[in-house]
Amino acid sequence: MSHHVVDDTLRKRTGSDKIWTRDFILIVLSNFFIFLGFQMTLPTIPLFVEELGGNDQLIGIVVGIFTFSALLLRPFAGHALESRGRRFVYLFGLGIFIISVGSFGFVPSLFFLFIIRIVQGVGWGFSTTASGTIATDLIPPRRRGEGMGYYGLSGNIALALGPTLGLALTGTISFKMLFIICSLLGLIAFILSMKIRYKQVDPAAVQQPHKKWDFYEKSAIPPSLLLFFLTVTFGGIATFLPLYSAQKGIEGIQWYFLLYAFALLISRTFAGKIYDQKGHQAVFIPGAVLVLISMVFLSWLPNSMVLYIAAILYGLGFGTVQPALQAWSIKTAPIHRRGMANATFYSFFDLGIGIGAIAFGQIGHWFGYGTIYLVAAVSVLFSIILYLYIVARSRTRAVSG
After folding, report:
1. Are 90 and 27 in contact (CB under 8 A)?
2. Average pLDDT over residues 303-315
3. What range defines the domain where residue 332 resides?
4. Rounded to two decimals, what is the model's pTM?
5. Is 149:277 a contact under the CB 8 Å cutoff?
6. 364 CB-near residues (< 8 Å, 6+ apart)
7. Which CATH number does the domain housing residue 377 bear?
8. Which of 35, 62, 165, 334 is deepest in the core (most CB within 10 A)?
9. Given CA atoms 327, 328, 330, 334 in this order, what sign does their dihedral have?
């Protein structure tokens, strides 16, 4: 019996194809609060580094080390999800995040901030990998694309509110108080997560022998690799778009991120349903093309209107593709490897952002900011070509098999 049939059988025993259950609402709310606390630190950490005497190079290191710390820990989180259980991993990750963020305002030097950022990355890697896996457990298999879209809304709303709220608070309160507030938001997530009824550890998964270098789920590689070439664009936008628009004398960069987040919200409400009904073939190419056009517009960027159009296209495109790719990576994985599939998916997400930020920093230095988005467009185009190859190869195997 396949794991999809097992899923459906369990669903029939325990209820209907309802998505918005008590536990799903709790994981969505918990995810919102942890993401809100995280998003509030994104634009404020660089300002805090400046206050501690750091330059642009040190800002990049302090910001970047967090991503790679989370990346390195995700495979271990994936194993622990199957052997120690969802509850342990999620609460462990949330606890580390709460303590580390609350400690930011008390650090005496950049060295200690650097160390605590590494620790924060550990908490983030464990908590977000666990949260996505818990959501996957709670969503009916036949509505997984739709459900993951709704789950992703919690992070998107936090993305829309967090940076603006964090920057607004820095003008009225101290950094120490700001980071304590971010930590308290994490504490709310922790309290909510205590009330979730978690899936029990599968004894077969505990007994499953792990290979020495088992750091990824093989079946999740194709959608995760496609995600990598798309999230590379994130590094160019989050890190350099404010500098690029300022250099061109274009105002309204804050509206870019709000419009982007709003477009993400819209796409999440319908893209998952299309995936569930018609598969990834119906959403990947249209979504990726929107991201591609957005990158071309940013490389051109003559005025604020083009900036806003690029934001909407990027939000609609990425919001369409990302939940479909995540649902795809889960669908192809065995039940006892879903935690590792999520870890693989998020690892490629982190890797894309980290490599994008580093590579585009050099490209921007050598060739100018506009070139960053042309290279990003090429990366998206490559993801489309790779997707067509993956689909063609799977069809060939299906025919020959």
Report:
1. no
2. 96
3. 216-401
4. 0.79
5. no
6. 240, 244, 371, 372
7. 1.20.1250.20
8. 35
9. positive
